[in-house]
Design a protein that fits this description.
Helix 5 crosses helix 7. The protein has nine helices and 13 strands. 31% of the residues lie in helices and 21% in strands. The chain has one domain: 3-Layer(aba) Sandwich (Rossmann fold), CATH 3.40.50. The two termini are 27 Å apart. The chain has a nine-stranded mixed beta sheet, with helices on both faces. It is α/β, with parallel strands linked by helices. The protein is globular.
Length: 319
């Protein structure tokens, strides 16, 4: 593809490559592929897809997979993190399938670079995207298994709002996708992560602010459409592992409760909607005292999460 890697902002052996994509409704588009190569003998790789208001900074995933003999790759999708351009509204999209060509290019590159088996991993909105991607790509997909970390399979709002407010906003999004709307998840979540507050992680607060920038009605419509596809039943032709916290939390004041559950999604939505995903091998597993991004939970919990992932991969990702 005649593109070059350069040192990534994470340094420590991480590299990044900018991939130019066709223009879209906002003009110029790029996606960023990040990698850290493992042993020269490695034939397996993981590709990580981040969530909403996020980007790749979770080097803990890379280190765990490198130790297990994988090459590591991650994407900053278009209009997120390393891929945001001046002409972009952050996180903006009108259909989840816009991200498919980002994933296509990344997977093709990983194959070209020698990996024969690929884990496609997605967190939150990334989990929703890869689930739909796997369903739409079927046998054409250049990956072998799916791992979904707290996938965003439904809006975390009361049932009555799912039946009334969300469809209305979705309809408005089809008429005028640029109507701005506030985002409504816990302001405490970012504080539970970042080392400047109560967490243990360091990341760019411009790319992942504690309070996400406003979304628009087109985004709501795109997400709602993705949720409806899953609720109506989809099939993926690859093994899928769906992971989640065992409970959700929504504290009104800061407290240790933030480290004990998912402060972004309703975990019951994940388990219920997972029932509509047909796969030859599907497993849904919950974790006690796990936060929304399971691998950023406190170390005893994330150690269990990684142990679970690798035990499952040993069963379904054959050399």
């Amino acid at each position: 593809m005649n593109m070059q890697y350069e040192e990534d902002v994470l340094k420590n052996g991480f590299e990044q490559m900018t991939i130019i994509q066709p223009n879209d409704f906002e003009g110029k588009v790029t996606t960023t592929l990040i990698r850290k190569r493992g042993s020269s003998k490695a034939t397996k790789a993981i590709l990580c897809i981040h969530g909403f208001n996020d980007y790749f900074f979770q080097d803990v995933i890379a280190e765990e997979f490198l130790k297990k003999g994988y090459h590591f790759y991650a994407l900053d999708l278009r209009k997120y993190g390393r891929s945001i351009l001046q002409n972009h509204r952050a996180n903006n999209m009108r259909d989840l399938s816009e991200y498919y060509e980002d994933i296509d290019r990344a997977l093709a590159t990983i194959r070209e670079e020698g990996s024969q088996k690929i884990v496609l991993y997605g967190h939150s909105t990334g989990g929703l995207i890869i689930t739909l991607y796997a369903s739409d790509r079927k046998e054409k997909a250049f990956f072998d298994v799916l791992v979904c970390n707290s996938p965003f399979y439904d809006f975390n709002v009361p049932w009555i709002q799912k039946k009334t407010v969300i469809p209305v906003l979705s309809f408005l999004g089809r008429l005028n996708p640029n109507i701005a709307l506030p985002i409504g998840f816990s302001k405490f979540y970012g504080k539970s992560l970042h080392k400047n507050d109560f967490g243990e992680w360091d990341y760019n607060l411009q790319w992942k602010p504690h309070v996400a920038p406003s979304i628009n009605a087109g985004w709501i419509n795109a997400i709602h459409d993705g949720h409806l596809k899953i609720a109506n039943g989809i099939s993926v032709h690859k093994p899928i592992l769906i992971l989640h916290s065992i409970k959700s939390v929504n504290p009104k004041h800061w407290g240790e409760e933030m480290f004990e559950g998912d402060a972004i999604l309703n975990v019951d939505d994940i388990t219920q909607k997972a029932k509509f995903i047909d796969s030859p091998h599907k497993e849904v597993i919950g974790f006690r005292n796990a936060i929304h991004d399971l691998v950023l939970s406190r170390k005893p919990v994330r150690d269990i999460v990684f142990k679970t992932i690798f035990e499952w991969l040993d069963k379904y990702l054959k050399n």
